[in-house]
């Protein structure tokens, strides 16, 4: 995902950037903080997609860490109903989300 976004930025294909990114707090090759740090460098000086983070626990430490990034819109505990994601994307009820 990060390599793809870097390529889009390099090619000036900013219209192809996603509006939303949904990631798990535990990624196979890196943790979410490493992903968010690298993502922050990629999207510097541009409009950023919203990121929703999924986690299997409501760890306050992890939530607080993730929510320090301006582009992280929500920290959601799994399982998350698909209709809730649709509501977040539609921009309704975001203030009521568990972030």
Automatic annotation (TrEMBL):
Q: Sorted alphabetically, which InterPro entries does this protein's record hold?
A: CheY-like_superfamily, Sig_transdc_resp-reg_receiver
Respond yes or no to whether keyword Transcription is given for this record.
no
Q: Tell me which domain of life the UniProt entry assigns to the organism this sequence originates from.
A: Bacteria
Residues covered by the Response regulatory domain: 1-93
Which keywords describe this protein according to UniProt? Phosphoprotein
Q: Which residues form the signal peptide?
A: none
Asked if the keyword Disulfide bond belongs to this entry, the reply reads: no
Concerning SUPFAM superfamilies, the annotation shows: CheY-like
An example Gene Ontology biological process: phosphorelay signal transduction system
- 4-aspartylphosphate PTM sites in chain numbering: 24
Q: What is this protein called?
A: Response regulatory domain-containing protein
Where does this protein come from, organism-wise? Sunxiuqinia dokdonensis
The upper taxonomy is: Bacteria, Pseudomonadati, Bacteroidota, Bacteroidia, Marinilabiliales
């Amino acid at each position: 995902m990060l390599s793809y976004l870097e390529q889009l930025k390099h090619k000036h294909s900013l219209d192809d950037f996603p509006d939303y990114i949904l990631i798990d707090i535990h990624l196979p090759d890196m943790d979410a903080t490493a992903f968010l740090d690298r993502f922050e460098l990629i999207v510097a000086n541009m409009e950023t997609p919203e990121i929703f983070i999924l986690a299997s626990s409501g760890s306050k430490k992890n939530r607080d860490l993730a929510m320090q990034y301006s582009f992280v819109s929500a920290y959601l505990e799994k399982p998350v109903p698909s209709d809730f994601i649709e509501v977040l994307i539609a921009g309704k009820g975001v203030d009521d989300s568990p972030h």
